[in-house]
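Lay summary. Proteins are chains of building blocks that fold into shapes, and those shapes determine what they do. In this project we predict the shape from the chain. Here is one chain we studied, written as its sequence of building blocks.
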Amino acid sequence: MERRYVTTDVFTNQLFGGNPLATVLDAAGLSSAQMQAIAREFNYSETSFVLPAQDPAHTAQVRIFTPRVEVPFAGHPNVGTAFVLAQQQRRQGLTDVERFVFEEAAGLVPMTLLRERGAVVGAELRAPEALTRRSVVAPAAAAACLSLPVSDLALARHAPQVVSVGLPFLVVELNSRAALGRARPDLAAHESLLPLDGADCVFAYVRAPDSAAHGGADGADGAATVLHARMFAPLDGVPEDPATGSATAATIALLSALDDAARGERHWRVHQGVDMGRPSLLLGRTVRDTAGANAVHVGGHCVAVFAGSFEL
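And here is the predicted shape, written in a compact code that computers can read:
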């Protein structure tokens, strides 16, 4: 059977920036082993597979694989898959829609399409789970995973901790952009510490100085908090990921929860991939109600790259 696929660069508006994604459009009938083999063949940080929805009220079932394992939820595969499906609908002459709902192992993932001058340019996801805060990690162990001295870690806001809104990550705050640039994954340290509470990746970030004073450039409305980040997943066969929406969502959910005074909607701009030559921009929103509960959204632009098919 011929299977169509499309590749996109996600969290960028520039070709060959952002995070590459392969989306297999005709995945019905493929086994889990076949999907894993296809993901290994593409060798991107993740590959998404589109299947018919189990509930006709939803858009599709989406399964997501790294080169080594299936994951219950991920950021750039959802954003890229929504963009690809919207492009396919337009080519088929179907009525434009504003939202999709994807069925995933972590739960339902609502997607809102982003448009400019009537054309779909990207998408925004809402995380499928509320924030969970799991194991706290000793600073020395977290620093070792990043090949950094403990003095490069910022510990005033939070200790290194595993957090999740659908996919767990060890989140580590650093104290300077220079420290973030020096970070390198240490495989032995990762193997010694991880996996932990479901996390086998390390998301390191630094808050830009006076970031709350930055305007909402690049598509975010209002003032935004600006973060610079890197994500290392050598245990998944991904030494560094150019843009990690699920880790961004977990991190901004954590930071929003730590700010007890914050209510209403808050905007975030997260720059990732710069140090590996694939600059990415992730646009986040946390919407905190009067009871303190957070709805977490992450979105961005996409660029179509390749399209083709294979027989399987």
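What the prediction tells us: The domain at 132-295 is CATH 3.10.310.10 (Diaminopimelate Epimerase; Chain A, domain 1).
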